[in-house]
Amino acid sequence: SQKIEQNSEALNIQEGKTATLTCNYTNYSPAYLQWYRQDPGRGPVFLLLIRENEKEKRKERLKVTFDTTLKQSLFHITASQPADSATYLCAGMDSSYKLIFGSGTRLLVRP
Amino acid sequence: EAQVTQNPRYLITVTGKKLTVTCSQNMNHEYMSWYRQDPGLGLRQIYYSMNVEVTDKGDVPEGYKVSRKEKRNFPLILESPSPNQTSLYFCASSSPGLARDEQFFGPGTRLTVL
User: Fold this and answer.
1) Which residues pair with A48 in a beta bridge?
2) Does residue B97 surpass a pLDDT of 80?
3) Which of B4, B11, B43, B106 is the most exposed place for a label (fewest CB within 10 A)?
């Protein structure tokens, strides 16, 4: 079955370091991948989108990559801050317009 | 303010009692969808709609119905709720100009079926 997989273990890092989150997909060919941030009890908030023909996308301290050979996207937050602590979701949409989400990775940034 | 609204935000009901969760967006979006979120399973798409009167099943449509009679509204109907439908539900919409790219999510509806 089609799957988007993210590391279920929380990522715990020191403030100021770069956080790197991984998203892998199987049995699936997403036309693009999206990354969202979700805080407890709230709806996800869109951060970045990267298309299959793009290698890398940046927005302020955020960077996302898309490797169709490895079937993987990496999401980076540079100079991380405690306010970046949240759960980050990866999602993919294929040509049928069905959106599949990963289960998310929780990021904890220590002061 | 551009937003997606859902009502009710919290609902406790009993098995078999029909209920409707409303979703409305004020951004003139064509694409709307419903998700449920369960611990360890992430967000799973229930139904989606690419336009008025056009709906399609997502990954977990069993036990749910939707309708899209107006562009702004996309209600989720549970004809006979069961305890396994206890979950956190999100409605989302996206911009027609961006081919359903960025999803705007509502605040969520926490449903408990006893």
Assistant:
1) A35
2) no
3) B11
